[in-house]
Write a structure and sequence with these properties.
Radius of gyration: 44 Å
Number of strands: 13
Shape: extended
Mean pLDDT: 85
Structural class: alpha+beta
Strand content: 5-15%
């Protein structure tokens, strides 16, 4: 392995060799060491304090402190968003601010903003109240005199009505009251203010009922919506004046106003004082407006200054919080002067980690350096594949099924080629492939700009898989050239067709057929096949047989990879009793079928392969007759059938019994190990492990597992081969849909000889092509290719029961937040 900062060549087939490491770091350099390891991003810490709650850990106070700073930053960001400011990536201040200084600064900014918000809210409320007051003064003065006169006359009518219904003594008393002081009898009070227009009818009704009609209400509509001082929202309101008589009525009116949220404002009957009050309110409004504008300007300048630094502060707080979270995973040693940590790292990163720890020791002026110690362990290490922007999407496709076991063969290496190819077999049309390629090319050429933007869920997914889609498009162009389809239209790109009509009119082409006048078309399908009577039977036969050949080839690849896995892990049992019988069973049946397909193509035989395969099982000893493709075929079929039958018990029985025998031998050998080779404690520990391992082995469970695995493979060999016929079905569906859109939309519109109809036809054709063929069919073919890889290919060799290498890295902080 290269030393230092030099990275070895990327190897996707096997995960990087990993090692379990113990780090002993002095407390004075622990923070800086973890920080430098976060910058490196190649060390995955194990939590040594898993049994402790978050509040019992060493650095709980520091994490709480960082959480409080993060809250203040969120508050400041919310204030910036409300003010319409965006955070800037460029920094104008000190780029090396400490956490303590940042904590003080954030506290000052938060207090200042809170004070500004409180003052601004008070000033704005006062301003809105004065605006409403001004509106009341201008509106209420219009109807005040007439309303009072109407109220007085109404009161007199009521009194006269009551007077007529009194007894003989009543008029004398009433007459005496009226003669004493008439002005006092008709003196009315009033309440003025604003009420919401949608509540005005209910407000009037409740006033009438509560006072039994002994009030007079006058309302006028405010033309412009006003800002409510309490809620701060623009509300359509009415100006009202309520005339009343008596303190009880006044108290009821005030309570009803409070209930309906009606804002009351004082008003005077004196016209001169009214104008004076309007002038005073206008002056106060002008002063408040100036004060509010100055405050908003000061607040905007403060937030703009913060905007240049807030991203840097946010990143610093996230880093510090992640550092303390990591420090909490380390345990204190007995002396409480060092922190002990354990974790996984790639073997190639050993020198880099040691250099980082040494640099942290020097920078923190520590007298004792950190200790890097490799531990021996039987734990399964995490899986780590170093990928780039091209291979990462393929690795994600595989990891979605399951993360590879440590050092297990990685299907992503083969998926890079097989996935886009199987997609293209179903999507083959070089016109559609070019459209897909151009769309992907836009993502690739603008990837730096688009990677910094938020694209939405669907676009983000498409952008992340841009290189997968590019390969799918390129393979689609290739298979489209083989199928000779450009939006379902054939072209003579590689020469002229090998066939020609019998005469110039081509009337008998569909009945009598064509004549072969030239050599075979050099590449792909001859263009003359399109539109002929035998096109569909020919393409069906061709694509169906191609699907079987591709399926058997990919399944054989999967079984071969199981052999390389077994050899790598030195598991000879899997080679002898899994790989060999599986290869025999699959190829005795479907490998033989693939051979028959190739022989039939090469010889031009008319043999019925369905008949051959069916009667290979039903009547293996019967003569094949006209279905015989080569000499000795009957005996070869019998031999292959017997081989397939023998392969089933070969897979089922030997492996469980041999595993049981190995376990018993291992247990017997460890139980009688010489005592002088270990002390008492280690002997007891080893004996405990042996007894524990002996209890774990259950022959019945192993046998049932092997039985299930055998049945799954035998049935899967049939169902998986049939599953590959989806390549034929999807390819046929795509071709026929493309042909329908071309003939029934575009050509039909062209035949009307009308420009408007032609334009409509072109628009419909484009929409159908994009919506159905380039979006829905792409997604459909993608999902079917995904299924073929996950189920038919990967289940032959891929266990996928590992776990990902998740190093402590500052580069992942932003991604986790998103």
């Amino acid at each position: 392995m290269p030393e230092g900062g030099c990275w070895p060549t990327m190897d996707l087939l096997r995960s990087e060799p990993m090692q379990l490491v113990q780090l002993i770091i002095p407390i004075e350099s622990a923070h800086r060491s973890i920080s430098y390891l976060g910058d490196l991003g190649l060390f995955q810490f194990k939590d040594l304090n898993a049994k402790k709650s978050p509040f019992q850990r060493t650095y709980a106070i520091q994490i709480k402190r960082c959480g409080e700073m993060a809250r203040k930053l969120r508050f400041i960001k919310d204030q910036m968003a409300k003010a319409g400011f965006l955070s800037s990536s460029r920094s104008l201040g000190d780029t090396h601010i400490t956490l303590d200084d940042l904590e003080v600064k954030l506290g000052e900014y938060e207090a200042e903003l809170l004070e500004m918000n409180a003052n601004s809210a008070k000033l704005q409320r006062s301003y809105n109240e004065l605006m409403e007051y001004k509106l009341v003064l201008s509106k209420a003065s219009q109807f005040f005199p007439s309303a009072e006169r109407s109220a007085i006359s109404q009161q007199r009518e009521v009194e006269e009505h009551i007077l007529g219904e009194r007894s003989i003594d009543s008029p004398l008393l009433l007459e005496q009251e009226m003669l004493t002081d008439p002005s006092k009898h008709i003196k009315l009070g009033f309440v003025s203010g604003l009420v919401s227009r949608e509540k005005s009818i209910a407000f009037e009704r409740i006033l009438f009922r509560a006072t039994r009609g002994n009030v007079f209400l006058k309302q006028v509509v405010a033309e412009v919506p006003v800002v409510d001082p309490v809620s701060g929202d623009k509300v359509e309101k009415n100006v009202f004046v309520v005339f009343y008589s008596g303190e009880r009525a006044k108290n009821k009116i005030l309570k009803i106003c409070d209930t309906f949220g009606a804002n009351r404002y004082p008003f005077t009957e004196d016209v001169g004082k009214q104008y004076q009050m309007i002038n005073e309110v206008s002056e106060k409004l002008a002063e408040l407006k100036t004060t509010i504008d100055i405050g908003q300007l000061h607040r905007a300048n403060l937030l703009q200054g913060i905007g240049y630094e807030i991203e840097q502060w946010n990143l610093l707080v996230k880093k510090e919080k992640s550092i303390y979270h990591t420090l909490n995973m380390l345990s204190l040693d007995v002396t409480k002067k060092c922190l002990v940590g354990e974790g996984w790292c790639p073997v190639f990163a050993r020198s880099q980690i040691q250099n980082v720890l040494q640099r942290a020791t020097v920078d923190s002026n520590s007298q004792m350096g950190a200790i890097f110690h490799v531990l021996e362990t039987k734990d399964s290490p995490p899986t780590y594949f170093r990928s780039n922007k091209f291979t990462s999407a393929y690795q994600e496709i595989v990891d979605a099924y399951g993360v590879a076991k440590y050092q297990e063969a990685n299907p992503a290496v083969y998926t890079i080629v097989t996935f886009p190819f199987l997609f293209a077999v179903m999507f083959g049309d070089w016109g559609h492939g070019i459209c897909l390629f151009l769309a992907t090319l836009y993502f690739i050429l603008r990837e730096k700009k688009l990677s910094r933007q938020k694209l939405g869920d669907i676009m983000e997914m498409a952008f992340g898989g841009r290189y997968v889609i590019m390969m799918m498009a390129l393979f689609s162009i290739y298979t489209g050239l083989i199928y000779n389809e450009f939006f379902s239209v054939p072209f003579e790109l590689f020469g002229r067709s090998a066939y020609s009509c019998r005469d110039s009119t081509c009337r008998d082409a569909t009945t009598m057929g064509l004549l072969k006048v030239r050599d075979t078309y050099p590449f792909g399908l001859d263009p003359k096949w399109h539109g002929t009577r035998s096109e569909l039977p020919f393409l069906n036969s061709l694509k169906m047989k191609m699907s079987i050949l591709m399926g058997v080839a990919q399944m054989n690849l999967g079984i071969f990879l199981s052999y390389y896995n077994a050899k790598f892990f030195k598991n000879n049992l899997n080679v002898r009793y899994q790989f060999i019988p599986q290869m025999i069973f699959l190829n005795s049946l479907f490998g033989y079928l693939s051979l028959l397909i190739i022989v039939k193509w090469c010889t031009g035989s008319q043999a019925d392969l369905y008949h051959v395969m069916i009667y290979m099982f039903l009547s293996p000893t019967d003569d094949l007759g006209e279905n015989q493709l080569f000499a000795g075929q009957k005996y070869i079929q019998i031999l292959l059938l017997l081989s397939a039958l023998v392969a089933v018990p070969w897979m089922l029985f030997p492996k469980p019994f041999l595993l049981k025998k190995q376990h018993e031998e291992r247990h017997r050998g460890q139980a009688y190990a010489p005592l002088h080779s270990m002390d008492d404690d280690s002997f007891e520990l080893e004996a405990e492990k042996v007894s524990h391992g002996h209890e774990e082995f259950e022959f019945s469970e192993v046998f049932v597992h092997q039985l299930i695995h055998t049945i799954e493979f035998v049935l899967g060999a049939v169902s998986n081969t049939a599953s590959y016929l989806r390549l034929w079905a999807l390819s046929l569906a795509h071709s026929e849909l493309s042909s329908v859109f071309y003939e029934k939309v575009l050509l039909l519109a062209w035949g009307f000889n009308n420009v408007i109809i032609l334009i409509i036809g072109i628009v419909v054709f484009i929409c159908a092509t994009v919506g159905v063929l380039l979006v829905m069919e792409t997604l459909s073919a993608f999902l079917h290719a995904l299924r073929l890889h996950w189920v038919e290919f990967q289940n032959k060799f891929y266990e996928g029961d590992g776990y990902k290498f998740s190093p402590f890295s500052f580069a992942l902080i932003g991604e986790d937040e998103e």
